[in-house]
Amino acid sequence: MTRDDLFNTNASIVRDIAEASAKICPKALFGIITNPVNSTLPIASEVYKNNDCYDPKRLFGITLLDVVRAQTFVSELKVFLHSNN
User: Fold this and answer.
1) What pTM did the predictor assign?
2) 43-76 b/e with 16+ CB inside 10 Å = b?
C-alpha cells in the first residue's frame, strides 16, 4: 500500500476510535500505531480538542512498527551483501 492508501484506510478508523475514547474514557492513555503515524496522531488530537479533553501527555505515536520494518530491510540487505562476497 502507498502512504496515501494507508492514510485513507486508517484516518477514519483513528477518528472513530478517538471519538469513542474521548466520550467514554477521556483520561485514558491513547497510543496510535497506525501508519502513517505522523498523519493519524493529529487526527486524534483534533478529536480530543473538539471534545474538550485534549491532553498531549496522554496521546502517543508509536513508531515501533516502522523501526522493526527498517531493521528487517537492513538485515536482509546485509545478508544479500554478505552472500555476494
Assistant:
1) 0.75
2) bbbebbeeeebbeeeebebeeeeeeeeeeeeeee
